[in-house]
Amino acid sequence: MMYNQTFNLDQVAFATEGIKDAQQTMSALKSANKELKGMMKTVNISDIDSMQDEMLDMMDISTEIQESLGRSYNVPDDIDEEELLGGMLDALEADMGAEIESDAVPSYLQPDRESDLDSELNLPAAPTGNAAAVLNRVNPQVYLSITY
């Protein structure tokens, strides 16, 4: 019996919470409805339709401009683009086939050849020997005036 009474009290508490939540939801819906009505007074559907029509017209004009700028001059009308594209693809395939058949390595995949930079630059040989011997040959007065 005690279990049933506790269950009934829990059910009443749950129902009370549900009604409070429903009241809060209704209050929020009323305020949202009021806010939406105020905002809808500032929006005119005919203005939106006319703006959309203007945008569509501008897009059409833009497309016409692009088509006009993309015109080709001195190109015969009887050229088939598909045929032209097919010919270019055939030429590419032939080039690739020649590379594959000859087992040749393309130049961009070949290792870099290191050239003899010394011969290209014509630089003198680096000095060898003791640096102190070089300093002994230098006039001390000149050396001191250079370093200080």
From TrEMBL:
**GO cellular component term, pick one:** multivesicular body
Q: Does the keyword Coiled coil apply?
A: yes
Q: Which UniProt keywords apply?
A: Coiled coil
Per the record, the GO terms for biological process are: late endosome to vacuole transport via multivesicular body sorting pathway; vesicle budding from membrane
UniProt keyword Coiled coil, yes or no: yes
By its UniProt entry, which PANTHER family does this protein fall under?
CHARGED MULTIVESICULAR BODY PROTEIN, CHARGED MULTIVESICULAR BODY PROTEIN 5
Q: Which family does it belong to?
A: Belongs to the SNF7 family.
Name by which UniProt lists this protein: Charged multivesicular body protein 5
